[in-house]
Specification:
By secondary structure, the protein is mainly β. The chain has one domain: OB fold (Dihydrolipoamide Acetyltransferase, E2P), CATH 2.40.50.140. Helices cover 0% and strands 49% of the residues. It contains no helices and five strands. The protein has a five-stranded antiparallel beta sheet, with no helix packed on it. Strand 4 and strand 5 form a beta hairpin. The protein is globular, with a radius of gyration of 11 Å. The model has no long low-confidence stretch (mean pLDDT 89).
C-alpha cells in the first residue's frame, strides 16, 4: 500500500479537470479530476488547498491518486 502524502494545490483548472500539487518533498505531481475523492461542489480543488494523496508513476510521470481535500475531510 502506498504511503499517503500531504501537499498544497499549486494550480488547478476546473474547466479542463487537471492541475498540479506541490509536495513537501520531491517534484510536483499531476492531478486529474477523476482522482479526487469527494461529494458535491466541494470536489473542485482550488489553488492553495491542502490535500492528502498517494503518488503513482503514470505513463507521463508522477500522478496523484485518491486525492482528499483536508479542509473538507470528515472527522
Amino acid at each position: 500500500m502506498a504511503k499517503r502524502e500531504v501537499g498544497i494545490v499549486k494550480w488547478y483548472d476546473a474547466g479542463e479537470g487537471y492541475g498540479f500539487i506541490a509536495r513537501k518533498r520531491g517534484e510536483d505531481v499531476y492531478v486529474h479530476y477523476s482522482s479526487v475523492l469527494c461529494d458535491g461542489s466541494d470536489c473542485i480543488l482550488k489553488e492553495g488547498d491542502p490535500v492528502e494523496f498517494t503518488v503513482i508513476e503514470g505513463s507521463s510521470g508522477l500522478q496523484a491518486q485518491e486525492v482528499v481535500s483536508i479542509k473538507y475531510a470528515k472527522k
